[in-house]
Each structure stands twice: as structure tokens, then as C-alpha cells.
Design brief:
The protein is mostly helical and 388 residues long. 59% of the residues lie in helices and 3% in strands. Among the domains are: 40-108, no CATH class; 144-234; 241-329, Serine Threonine Protein Phosphatase 5, Tetratricopeptide repeat (Alpha Horseshoe). The chain has helices at residues 6-9, 32-87, 90-103, 110-124, 144-158, 162-175, 181-203, 206-216, 224-240, 247-257, 272-290, 293-306, 310-324; strands spanning 328-329, 334-336, 347-349, 354-355. Helix 2 runs antiparallel to helix 3 and helix 7 (181-203) crosses helix 9 (224-240). The radius of gyration is 53 Å and the shape is flat. Mean pLDDT is 76; it is low at 126-139 and 333-388.
């Protein structure tokens, strides 16, 4: 059997590509790059924000931890200083209080306790008056004069002779500036502190007292009491600077001073309460000149509560009259009785109130009534006069 040819049995197939459809648009490509960049930007922004928040939180946490550590250290050292002060270890107590103030200058009570420790230290320590054994090869200066000055300064501090103590300390420093520097500094602080307070409260030397307190502050921080006196002295001087220039400003200062330190005075001898009273009168006069008599009356009344005199009373009365105006004085009621018993019951008639004025009353002229005309009588015709 003859072999059959495959080409004869199967026709040749030609692969013809299909024709593309007519009018078919190509799909747009997605903008993946834009979205990728936007996502990366968002991630970077979030990372930056998170880093900033974490950084701030870390700083806040670190500051809080440091503040807690400082508070714990200052509290511990302050309590230990109080114990050392009670046990008589004044030098150690002084070091502890200085450390507390260095860490926290506003720690409550630290300045006062430091002053107390320095005062106790200066009072308790006594110099060694006996000879000191030294090697023969070392030349020892004669310190007996310096030691005597130190002992004298201690005695003067104990006797509260502040000026003499400062003069003695000056002589001691001139003789030997290196002799017991810490103790001498503490004695300077005490003497200057109390001399400054006495100048402010007793002598009326406000400028000198403030200067002494500023000098004592070089050796140690001022305690609360001394700092308060310095503040009141500064306010007094500020208020006095407006005297007779601005009475209202003067009142602002001295209204705060006189309730606390009424006897605080300056070189003029006027106390704080005196200046407050005079400022009230001066401000009242100024208000009265403006026509504000009611406010002036309030100032005068406040001044009268402190001290009164005839001049002030006249000013207060005049301001009161101008503020309230003329007063009305009611007249007493008058009763008018009926002429007969059969008539109505008597009624009380109240006249209108009388207004007090300064004008004179009008002059009323009263004329006498004219006499009646004479009546002519004609006799009757029959000559008979009728009976009356």
C-alpha cells in the first residue's frame, strides 16, 4: 500500500495574525511613582514627628529626674544640717546649708539656718591664747595681737556692739588678712547684718542700713527678716520720692508700709503712718480742687481715723456738705380744731417741709383796710320810727 503524503491529506495552514479591533483605546498606566513618593514622604514626616516628641519627652523626663534628685539631695542635706546645728557641729552645719543654697537658692529656711550656724560658729569658737609648740627650724610669727583682736571682736558681738565689732574686725584684717578667714567672714556678716537692721528700724538711716545689708550679703545670703526690712526701706524711699508730686502714688506705697512698720522713718523724722495721713489729706485737697467732693470726703474720713485736728475737721465738714448738698428740715405738725363741737373732728395738718436757703425772705407790705362808706337813713313819711 502506497504511503500517503500528509501534505495531501491536510491542507497547508497559514498563521494570519488577527486584525486589531477598530477604535479601541489603550488603558492608562497607573501613577505608581507618585503614590510611592507620597508614602515615603508621609513616613518621613511621621518619623520626624515621632523623633521630636520622643526627644522632648526624654528631655522632660531627664529634667524631672534631675529635679527630683536635687530636691532629695537638698532636703536630706537640710535635715542633716539641722541635726548638726542642734548637736553643736556648727561648721559642718554651715557647709551643709551652703550646699543646699547652692543647689536651690529658694529652699525654704536655708538662709535663716545658715545665718544661725554662722552666728553660733562665731560665738562658740575661741582663740588659743597659749604658746604653740613649733619646730626650732621654723620661725613662728607673734600672733598674740591678732588673737587678742579676735577675742575682743567676739566679746563685742556678744554685747551687740556692732560698730565697735566692725572696727575691731577691720583692724584684725589689716593686721593679718589670712587669719581665720571663714570665722572672720562670719563675724563680719553678723555685725553688718544687725547694724544695717538697726539703722533701718531704730536710727531712720534707710540708705545706710541698705548699704550695710548689701555688704553683709557678700559673705552669706540674707535671712528673710533682714531682706524684709530692706524691702520696706526701699518702698519707703520710693514713696517719699513722689511727695507733693503725685499723692496717689504716695498712697500706694505707704498704704502697704504703715500697717506693718508704722514707725519706720527716714532722716526727716516722719514715720510711715505720718506720711500716710498727710498723703490722704493732700490727695483729698487735690480731689476737692477738681470738684470731686465725695471722694475727697472719703480721704478726709480715713485720715481722721488716724488722727484728727481742727483743720482736718473743717475740710471734712466742707467736703461732706458739698457732697450731700443742703438738707431738708421738716416742721412740726399743727392741729386745727373745729369751731363747734357739732362739727367734724379736728384734723392734723402738716405744712410742707421748709427748705433751708441762704436767700432772705421777701418783704410783704400790709395796708390797713379802708373805712366803710356812711349809710344814709331816710325817715318815713308818716314820721313813725320803726322799732329796732
Amino acid at each position: 500500500m502506497a504511503s500517503m503524503n500528509l501534505e495531501d491529506t491536510h491542507p497547508n495552514q497559514v498563521n494570519v495574525p488577527p486584525e486589531p479591533p477598530q477604535n479601541q483605546e489603550k488603558p492608562p498606566r497607573p501613577r505608581r511613582l507618585v503614590w510611592v513618593l507620597a508614602g515615603i514622604g508621609c513616613v518621613l514626616v511621621m518619623v520626624a514627628i515621632g523623633s521630636f516628641i520622643g526627644y522632648q519627652a526624654g528631655i522632660s523626663n531627664r529634667l524631672r529626674v534631675e529635679a527630683d534628685q536635687v530636691a532629695m539631695a537638698t532636703t536630706t542635706q537640710f535635715q542633716l544640717g539641722l541635726q548638726d546645728l542642734a548637736d553643736g557641729r556648727y561648721d559642718i552645719a554651715r557647709q551643709r546649708f551652703e550646699y543646699v543654697i547652692r543647689l536651690d537658692p529658694q529652699f525654704p529656711g536655708a538662709s535663716e539656718k545658715l545665718s544661725e550656724a554662722m552666728m553660733s560658729l562665731a560665738m562658740v569658737r575661741t582663740p588659743t591664747l597659749g604658746p604653740t609648740a613649733t619646730p626650732d627650724v621654723t620661725a613662728t610669727p607673734d600672733l598674740r595681737g591678732v588673737e587678742e583682736l579676735y577675742s575682743t571682736a567676739q566679746q563685742l558681738l556678744a554685747a551687740q556692739q556692732w560698730q565697735q565689732a566692725i572696727d575691731t574686725l577691720d583692724a584684725l584684717r589689716f593686721a593679718d588678712a589670712t587669719y581665720r578667714t571663714v570665722d572672720v567672714d562670719g563675724m563680719y556678716y553678723i555685725a553688718l547684718r544687725y547694724r544695717g537692721v538697726n539703722k533701718i528700724t531704730l536710727e531712720g538711716n534707710l540708705e545706710g542700713g541698705m548699704y550695710d545689708l548689701a555688704l553683709s550679703e557678700r559673705f552669706a545670703p540674707l535671712d528673710g527678716e533682714a531682706n524684709g526690712y530692706r524691702t520696706w526701706a526701699r518702698m519707703y524711699m520710693s514713696g517719699a520720692s513722689f511727695w507733693e508730686l503725685d499723692w496717689q502714688r504716695v498712697l500706694e506705697y505707704f498704704s502697704q508700709i504703715y500697717p506693718v512698720l508704722p514707725n519706720l522713718r527716714d532722716g526727716s523724722g516722719w514715720t510711715a503712718v505720718d506720711r500716710y495721713r498727710l498723703a490722704l489729706i493732700g490727695y483729698g485737697d487735690q480731689l476737692a480742687d477738681r470738684g470731686d467732693y465725695c471722694s475727697a470726703w472719703d480721704q478726709y474720713k480715713t485720715a481722721q481715723q488716724i488722727s484728727s485736728d481742727d483743720t482736718l475737721n473743717q475740710k471734712a465738714s466742707g467736703a461732706e456738705f458739698e457732697c450731700l448738698g443742703p438738707t431738708e428740715t421738716p416742721a412740726p405738725a399743727a392741729t386745727i380744731a373745729a369751731p363747734t363741737s357739732a362739727g367734724p373732728a379736728p384734723t392734723a395738718v402738716t405744712p410742707p417741709p421748709v427748705v433751708v436757703t441762704t436767700e432772705p425772705p421777701p418783704v410783704v407790705t400790709t395796708e390797713a383796710p379802708a373805712p366803710p362808706d356812711p349809710v344814709e337813713t331816710t325817715p318815713p313819711a308818716d314820721g313813725v320810727v320803726p322799732a329796732g
